[in-house]
Amino acid sequence: MSKGLDAVSLNKRAWERVAEKYYKAHYGKVSEVFNFFCEKLPKGSSVLDVGCGTGLPFAKLLVERNFNVIGIDVSSRMVRIAQKNVPTAEFRELSMTDINFEKEFEGVLSSFSMLLLDPPLFKDIAGRIVRCLKNDGLFCLALNEPREEGADVDGEAVVEIMGEKMYSRAYTKNEVLEAFVPLGMKQLKFNREIRTSKEFGEEHVIEFVLKKTKPVHSSLASAHVN
To answer: Do 192 and 205 touch, CB atoms closer than 8 A?
Structure first.
């Protein structure tokens, strides 16, 4: 990342400005990976939606499936919209960089929010997410990958989304697994596809469901969280 660029602050300002536009965005179909995640969660599970945005579509869908949902987002405007869209869920203005839950959730969801992180922050948030999960908890993750196999993933950039500049970075499947597997996470499901929308253009999407198979060693968790 460019020296002196504060990606978190840049993205917070951008999402504050595009909240109303994002509310009107076309979300497309719900993926089989998300459905798999929901089917594998125990009934009545507590689920954390990381980067919940307007609460649509995922917080709403999770509530409709009778899960207990807490959504967090760095944008106060997004949170206010989410509270109106999904009044039976709980929403908090909170950056994912400040997550500090300890084994409170059976499930965690991150739909395209972790692509807004540079690599050091990605590893940091990976540790925080794993700590959020109870033993055998599930993590559902969607990201964009580089458009060409073997492409330079260091092509991180300040991009324009819905007319606002923000930091974004594509991640490879290997990078994701290298961040999560050492923390005791096992891949249960993976999907790769190309999606196109008016708001985001062509996206090369990768999706995972990962399971927490063993407790995180305290020293390893702190290495990712501190």
So the answer is: yes
**pLDDT tier for residue 164 given thresholds of 50, 70 and 90:** confident
Cα–Cα distance, 66 to 108 (Å, whole number): 15
The mean per-residue pLDDT over the stretch 135-147 comes to 95
For 142, the token pair is 């969607």
Give me the domains of the chain, ranges plus CATH numbers.
Answer: 7-225 (3.40.50.150)
State both tokens at 223: 């290495």
Instruction: Please indicate whether residue 165 or residue 214 has the higher confidence score (pLDDT).
Output: 165
Distance, in Å, from the CA atom of 130 to the CA atom of 161, rounded to the nearest integer, reads 29
Place of tokens 């939606």: 49
Q: Average the pLDDT over 137-166 and give the result.
A: 75
pLDDT for 167 equals: 86
* pLDDT digits 0-9 by tens, 40-81: 999 999 999 999 999 999 999 999 999 999 999 999 999 999
Per-residue HEC secondary structure of the chain comes to: CCCCCCHHHHHHHHHHHHHHHHHCCCCCCCCHHHHHHHHHCCCCCEEEEECCCCCCCHHHHHHHCCCEEEEEECCHHHHHHHHHHCCCCEEEECCHHHCCCCCCEEEEEEECCHHHCCHHHHHHHHHHHHHHEEEEEEEEEEEECCCCCCCCCCCCEEEEECCEEEEECCCCHHHHHHHHHHHCEEEEEEEEEEEEECCCEEEEEEEEEEEECCCCCHHHHHHHHC
